[in-house]
Amino acid sequence: MAEMDNVSKKILEDAQKERQKILDQAREKAKKIIAEARKDKQEALDQAKNKAQQKYKQAYELEMIKAKSEAQQKRLLSKLELVDQTVEQAKKKILDSKQEDYRQFIKKGIQDLDIKQGSYIIGRQEEKLDHDTVRSLSKNIKLEKSDHAPDFDRGLKIISQNKEYLLSPETIIDTQMEDLKMEIADFLFGEEK
User: Fold this and answer.
1) Which residues, 6 or more positions from 80, have their beta carbon under 8 angstroms from its beta carbon?
2) Torsion (CA) 53, 58, 63, 69 in degrees, nearest 10
3) How far apart are CA 176 and CA 179, in angstroms?
4) Theoretical Cys-Cys bridge with 153: which of 8, 76, 86, 125, CB 3.0 to 4.6 Å?
5) Beta sheet of 142-145, edge-to-edge order
6) Stretch 56-72: mean pLDDT, rounded?
7) How far apart, in whole angstroms, are the C-alpha atoms of residue 64 and residue 58?
8) What are the residues facing 193 on neighbouring strands?
9) C-alpha to C-alpha distance for 170 and 90, rounded to whole angstroms
């Protein structure tokens, strides 16, 4: 019986050792699973944090681009307003200029037409031009007074070969508006490049 007790004892000891081995393996496996879960959790948190930072950065950059664009638009509108005011002041200055300066302006316009003959109409509210003045300003061009009533306020309209040329500060400046605006903008803001 003692042998049976020894065998029983041995079986119990082996069972105890096996149980301990299984428990140790389970604990080790549990530690690995917990460590892996913690690692996965940390990676997921890091990824979420990186995504959040990227989204924040993108949103920040988008807002900065938007703010810069709005500021540039406001600045451009201010510049355009200033250019328009400058053009309007130039028109007014020509209209308000001395009679001789105004006549020289009209004379240059007539000379630039490159025509030989035609007829003319003086604007309804034109105060600085009369028929004698028009004839003296257009020495090389044969111009006759037209019977048509003026359909404009200021300046001089010349009709030659079915073409009409309106010489007034407004129309001359308006026809060259884009070039003038570029020149004025370059003059006013050229240093900002």
Assistant:
1) 181
2) 150
3) 6
4) 125
5) 142-145, 117-122, 156-160, 163-167
6) 91
7) 10
8) none
9) 9
Contacts (Cβ under 8 Å, ≥6 apart) of 169: 90, 91, 94, 95, 105, 154, 155
What are the structure tokens assigned to 77, written together? 């509108």
Q: What would the pLDDT profile of 87-128 be if each residue is shown by its tens digit?
A: 788 777 777 778 888 888 888 888 888 788 888 888 888 888
Distance, in Å, from the CA atom of 126 to the CA atom of 103, rounded to the nearest integer, reads 12
What amino acid is encoded at 22 in this protein?
Answer: I
Q: What is the DSSP-derived secondary structure letter of residue 114?
A: -
What's the CA gap between 187 and 51, in Å, rounded?
Answer: 48
- Residue 119's DSSP bridge partners are 144, 159
Buried/exposed code over 5-30 (b: 16+ C-beta within 10 A; e: otherwise): eeeeeeeeeeeeeeeeeeeeeeeeee
Tokens 């119990």 locate to: 12
